[in-house]
Each structure stands twice: as structure tokens, then as C-alpha cells.
Amino acid sequence: MKPKTMFEKIWAAHVVHEEAGRPALLYIDRHLVHEVTSPQAFEGLRLAGRRVRRPELTFATMDHNVPTTDRSRPIEDVISAKQIETLVQNCSEFGVALFDLNSPDQGIVHVIGPELGLTLPGLTLVCGDSHTSTHGAFGALAFGIGTSEVEHVLATQCLLQDKPKTFLIEVTGRRPYGIEAKDIILSIIGRIGTDGGAGSVVEYAGETILQLSMEERMTICNMSIEGGARAGMIAPDEKTFDYLRGRRYAPADFDAAVARWEQLPTDAGARFDRGLTIDAALLAPQVTWGTNPGQVVSINARVPNPSEFSDPNARKAAERALDYMGLTAGTAMTDIPIDRVFIGSCTNSRIEDLRRVARFVKGRRVASTVYAMVVPGSQPVKKQAEAEGLDRIFIEAGFDWRESGCSMCLGMNPDILKPGERCASTSNRNFEGRQGKGGRTHLVSPIMAAAAAVEGRFVDVRQYELKERQ
Amino acid sequence: MEPFKKHSGVATLLDLPNVDTDQIIPKQFLKRIERTGFGQFLFYDWRFIDGKKPNAEFEMNADRYRGATILVTRANFGCGSSREHAPWALLDYGFRCILAPSFADIFYNNCFKNGILPARLSESQVEMIFERVRRTPGYQLTVDLEKKKITSDDGLEFTFELDDFRRHCLLGGLDDIGLTLQYENKIRAYEASHREISPAPAGRNSL
Q: In chain B, which end has fewer C-beta atoms inside a 10 angstrom radius, N or C?
């Protein structure tokens, strides 16, 4: 039999119907729903007199638009409150399970899917959110869709999809101290560009990927979309199975499921349309300087000069980005002072992220010029962090400790930057105005954000290695 | 959805690559639960100064582009968030067609669900249109989806590629859900035969 990639196996197992000249009709196993991209889809069903075909495969939460302050108080923004109330009504009317603001399971949709065991190897999973690629860390085919497609999945449990191309990114080499999963994915995006993965599903493989924890794998797959890819995936292994065992919605006959999942990884000799190899041993901590995630450099580098870009459009974009970011070409990245730090988002708000930050900030203080906040990805993450005393470490170090949600990653709720404020952020997008109109976002790993909070400027976290060993 | 067959209109320019959906429609406008009325917020932070005064430096604001229905822009247009509010805002503002060297995947899909044609041209063809639009106030283009051709009165003629299925759906203004429901028997058969591959979450099996 012809060797197959993991993507091809999952794709083939989900084709409901296929004919020449049409996209395939693909079955969807899990549909995650949130308050921002679903109201118009439910309204569409209502207008057409349709029902949700498989409500038991559909799960909703509220994350994008929710305050991260005290949950016992009502939401002040009336339009936000209405959107949240609309999700409650829609879920009740159409029979969809909802983890609402008062639920102990509420959180960012891409954090709670895996936590609840909804995300499983070999499944197709969609959500009206581009960071759905996160779930590929479990060996699922997971991708973001628009609201019309949300309505399509609600009504039919299927999607019309063109078969994407395959892209293998192998990461080899031992990660040096201070190099996180975030640095690996940022450097990949820096290399391929924000449209480098367009039309493709990326499989991340290689010894370095195998060594990553599930949380770190989620960070990598999460940002696949920032490289333009349709989805990102990593083969399931013992770590994947251990993470999922005992989760609420994980299969009852877990061993039988594992036996099936073990067949998923890409066969030896399978061909990909494209390939790229990265040596993690050569990486330095990454910091974005511009207004897209591909505009990134190593911490020991300088802000690039637009004249270095040979492509005229890239040059123009760089000039514009420097102007927006208030940066001068040639400035050392470590000379850039910051005003804010945001630790959170579907990229970096899981318990391991918070543990690493806590370990670093314990006994240190947030600089007096910096306002720093930690927003856990979900209520279970928050509870776990509090059980481990991480909240105390954050508060004692001068961080604000919040309720769970997307928060300042996209600033739909009141957590936003003021014009001109500069932020070290563990989130995924540094677009103009993303974290607030006029706000200046630099994407970094959690440990780099923690160090920036303490020093009040970007620092090379590798300098702490010796101190920590002493 | 309104069918798209042949469309003539004024072309306007957005001279930047990698325009993300956060720029097309900033997040503060995503709280609405309707599909309509987003045009007033299109490119909000670029079009307006302090949310009120039109920004004279934003090319699209010039009088010569008033009433434009065709947007010409650079590579990777629509990257970032999956928000369909982006095509809703473009459509509500008046755009029926977007010409660029490339589009981000999710945005590209979303356009077809809303009767907007995103047509891919080469970098040099886009450059040629940029030059002509800048040279001639009120420059118009005609987009013929049937023939997959873009033409102008001054003799420009480009063909673009588009798969037959998307073209067919856009020409007919067809509803995807209606098309898929014609395969109800196949969906049911799949569900019956793939319970192991596509299991319901533990405790929630209602099939």
C-alpha cells in the first residue's frame, strides 16, 4: 500500500462524498462554538427552519468578549452582554452544551477543548476561530472557519473542503536554555512568512517536537495560522495518550481508542508536497519588531532597516511597521523599554506556561514602569494555578491575576492598550491596533515576557542561565 | 446570496501586502449579532482619525474613488482572524470584487459565501492595474465571471483562474447548505458506518 501522511489518513476517513470538479464533503466530528462568530449562524438556522444536526458533537463557551474581572458583577458593556446572552439563548434553543461564565469549565475555546477531552487524535474539529489549528497538537485535523461555515456545520455536520497540500516541518537539535516552543514557531513564521503555509496543512515532526510537552505542542500548532497554514498537526504518542486519559469526554474504552490512534502517524516513505528543516540548537529567543508575526528577529539582533528588504512591498510594509511601532532601525532589541506585559491567550495561557513564568518571577518584582497581567486560559487552569500557589507568586511579584478569557490578545473586552503603549505579549498577533488602537505589540515567549516585566525592557533570558544554576 | 455574473465598477486601491482582518474590521465592532451594517466600520482605524474625521492620507478616501465597487490590493489580503465580519463589511461598503495576487485561505472561502469574488491575478497584472487606476480618475473595470475575464475600456484584458464549483455557486448565488443537504443519504450512511472513527464524546452518544 502507498505510504500515507497522517493528514491523508484522517482526510480519507472523513470523506462523505467526492466527485471530480467539486470540493469533498468532509464529516466533522467536533464543533466548538463561541459567542462572537456564532450568533449570525444560529440566526441563519432559525430563518431557514433548520436544527443543529448533531448537538451532542457541538460545544460552546464564551471567551472572546468576556471581562476578566470579578465574575459576580454584571457585564457593563451592553452590546457585549447582549452577545453573551444571545449565545445562552441559542444553546438552550438548539440543545448545545454551553460552558458559560459561571461554569467551572469556562475558558478559551482552544484551552478547554483539550482539557475536556473533546479534542482527540484522528478527529476532524472546527471552530469559528482561526486558532483552531491548536487542536492539531493531538493529531486531529483542526481548522478555523467563517460564520457561514459554522452555520453549514451546525446544519449538516459536514463541510465542503478542497483538499489542502501537505507541508512537513522537521525540527531537530537540542533546545538551548531559554528557547521555548514559542521561539520555534516564531522563527518558522519568520522564515516562511505569514503566507508561507497558504493552502497547506503543516505536520511538525522531528526529535525536538517529540520532546515537547502537550502544552508546548499546542503553542506550535496554534500559530500555524500565522504562517498562513490551514492547519498544523503533530503525531499522537504516549504523551498525547497520557494527557487525554481520564478526561471527561475521552473515550470510555480508552485502550481500544489508543490502538486506533497508534495507526495515525505518517507512514515511513510518505511524500509531502513541501518540506523544511529547522535546527533548534541554533535558535535564540525571538521578539517581533513589526506588525505581523513574520516580522521577527532574535533578541540579540537589532530592529531591521527597511532598505534591507529587496521586495518593494516588503520594504514599504517594514517602513510602515516601524512608523506604527515607533521604532528606529538599528536599535538593539534589548534597548526597547516596555509599558505593559500580557501573559495569556490560546497560545500561552496553560498551566505549564504559568508555572514557567512563576518559577522565573518568584522573588523578583515587576518593574515600577510596567503594568503586567496574567490571564489564565480557563477556570481549570486558574484553579490549578491557585492550588499550586502560583497566584500568590504573581501577586507578590506585582502582576495582576485575572479571570479566564481571551482578554488582551484581541482586546474585545476592556483589557486593552492605550495608544502608544508598548506591550510584551505571549499572544499570537501583533497587527496594528490588535491589542487596542495605537497599541504596540511585541510577541514573545512566556519566559521572555516575564523577564521583560521584571527589567522593564526586553532582555535576553539566556543571561539568567548561570544565575539559576548557582 | 446575490449572484455574481458580470460586474462593472470603479476600482480603488489599497497599496499594502498582508492586510489582516483586524484592519478590515477592528474587533470593537464584532460584538454585534447581525450580519449587516458593518460597512461604516470598514478599515475604521485607517479611514478615520479619532473615529470621526476621514483620514486624507488613506488613499481610498479620495473623491475620485467614491462609489468604488472593486478593490485592488496586494498579496495575502485577509490574513489573520477567521471573522466573516470582514467580507460582510466589504460587501456592505459596496465591494463586489477584490483583485490581489493572493488571499489568505479562510478569508478567501468566506468571500464566496457572501457573493464577493476574490480574483487572483499575477503581481505584474496587479501592478499594471495600480498604475492605470492612479493615472485615470474614475478608472473602471469589468469583471466577467462567466468568461473569467477582467477588462477595461482602455484595452486591458486579463483572465483569472477559478475552480468550476466556486464559479458555478457564485454565478447562481447558490446556498451551500442546500447543496450539501442533497447528500443527506450519504451523510446518514457515513454516520452509520463510521461510529468508531467519528465517536460521540463519552456519555453524549445520541445517534
A: C
- Amino acid code (one letter) for A346: C
Which A-chain residues 303-322 have CB contacts (< 8 A) with chain B? 313-314, 316-317, 320
Q: Which of residues 8-37 of B touch A (CB under 8 A)?
A: 15-18, 20, 22-23, 26-28, 30-35
d(CA B121, CA B127): 10
- The closest alpha carbon to A306, from A317, A298, A296, A293, belongs to A317
Q: Which helix (H) or strand (E) holds A287?
A: strand A286-288
Interface with A, mutate which of B14, B106, B127 (most A CBs under 10 A): B106
Rounded Cα gap, residues A127 and B81, in angstroms? 12
Record: contact A412-B79, CB cut-off 8 A: no
Q: Would residue A340 be called left, alpha or beta, if left means φ above 0 and alpha means ψ between -120 and 50 degrees?
A: beta
Tell me whether A46 touches chain B (CB under 8 Å).
no
Backbone angles phi, psi at B41, to 5 degrees: -105, 0
Handedness of CA B161, B165, B168, B173 (dihedral sign): negative
